[in-house]
Amino acid sequence: MAAVKGVAFMDGRWMPLAEASVPILDRGFVRSDATYDVAHVWKGRFFRLMDHVERFQASMAGLRMSLPYSAQEIADIMIGCASRAGLRDAYVQVTCTRGLPPPGTRDPRLCRNRLYAFAQPFVWIADEQQRRDGLRMILSGTQRIPPEALDQRIKNFHWLDLTMGVFEAYDRDATVCAMPAADGTITEGPGFNIFVVKDGALATPHRGLFEGITRRTVMEIAADLQLRCDVRAVHAEEVVAADEIFVTSTAGGVSPVTVYEGRAIGDGRPGSLTRRITELYWKRHEDDALCTPVPYDD
Ligand SMILES: Cc1ncc(COP(=O)(O)O)c(C=O)c1O
Predict the structure, then answer these.
(1) Would you say the CB of residue 38 lies under 6 angstroms from ligand 1?
(2) Alpha-carbon torsion 172, 174, 178, 184, what sign?
(3) Which of 22, 168, 256, 297 yields a CA-CA distance of 20 to 30 A from 33?
(4) Which pLDDT band, with edges at 50, 70 and 90, does 4 fall under?
C-alpha cells in the first residue's frame, strides 16, 4: 500500500505521516482516552482555524486535560503540518491524549497529556458521484451513546456505536446512517451533523451530538438568507417526511441525502435549498475574516 502523503507533529517532533506512531501504552490508544479536532485547508487557507482550536481547548478542559501550548501555538502546529506537507487541500487533525501513566499505576492524574497533529490530503465523507446524486441514508438500529454517559460536545474516540451504524448502512444498501436517541429523535451520523428541510424551514437536532463548525456555518448562512433554522428535537418520522435532507462535516462541507430508509426524498435529487447552502458554504471560504493562509515554501 502506498504511504499516505502528509506530515505529523508527534509530542514535539515533526515527521512524515507514514512514520508517525503512538506509544502502545498511551491511554489514548488503550482506553480511547483522548480528544481531537479536525479542521480543513482549502485552496491553501484554513477555514475557521481559531474556532477549531477553541473547540479543541474546550474539549480538553471537559476531559481534564491540559497542554503546555497556547491557542496560537496549537494553531501554529496545525499550520506547520499543512505547510510542511505542501498540501493546498488538507484534512488537519489535532489530538490530545491522556498519555502514559507511570509504570505500575493507572491514575489518570499522573499522566502527562500529549499533543499529536497531522495533515493529510483532503478527506470527503461522500465521493464525487454521491455529492452530485445524493447519499442514501438509513436510521441505525444502534443508539448513539447518550449525553448522560458521555458529553458528545467533547469530540471523542468512542466511535463504536457510529462504526456499527456504518456497517448497518452498507448492509442495507445505503451509504450513511442517522443515529437515534432512546426517545425516538435523531442525533447525528458518523462524522457529520444532520439537517432536515420542510416547507422552506431548516431544523437540526439539539442534543446528544457533536456541535459541528460546519453546522454552525450553515446556521449562519440560514440567518443571512432569513431562513428559519430551529435547533430542537428532530423526530425520526420528520426525517422520512422531509422535503430535503443534508449532512454537514469539515470532511467535505454540505452533502445532500436523496434516499432515506429506501424512499426518495423530494423528487429524489438534491434539493434547491441544499444546493444553495452548499454554494454559499464554499463561497464563505473566500472570506478573509474566516480564513488563515498557510505559508508554503514553494
Ligand atoms: C460525531 C461527529 N459529529 C459531527 C461532526 C461534524 O463536525 P464539523 O462540522 O465541525 O466537522 C463530526 C466531525 O467532524 C463528528 O465526528
Answers:
(1) yes
(2) negative
(3) 168
(4) confident
Nearest Cα to 169, choosing from 193, 136, 191, 212?
Answer: 136
In angstroms, what is the span from residue 194 Cα to ligand 1's centroid?
10
* Domain over 7-121 is classified CATH 3.30.470.10: yes
Residue pLDDT, tens place only, 257-291: 999 999 999 999 999 999 999 999 999 999 999 99
Which protein residue's CA is at the shortest distance from atom 7 of ligand 1? 212
Positive or negative, the CA dihedral 127, 132, 133, 135 is positive
Distance 224 CA to ligand 1 centre (A): 23
41-95 pLDDT, tens digit each: 999 999 999 999 999 999 999 999 999 999 999 999 999 999 999 999 999 999 9
Q: How many Å lie between the centroid of ligand 1 and the Cα of residue 105?
A: 34
Q: Where are the domains of the chain?
A: 7-121, 128-285
Domain 128-285 = CATH 3.30.565.10:
no
**The ligand 1 atom nearest the CA atom of 216:** 9
Residue 188 CA to ligand 1 center (angstroms) comes to 9
Nearest ligand 1 atom to the CA of 215 is 9
Q: Are 280 and 221 in contact (CB under 8 A)?
A: yes
CA atoms of 113 and 11, how far apart (whole Å): 9
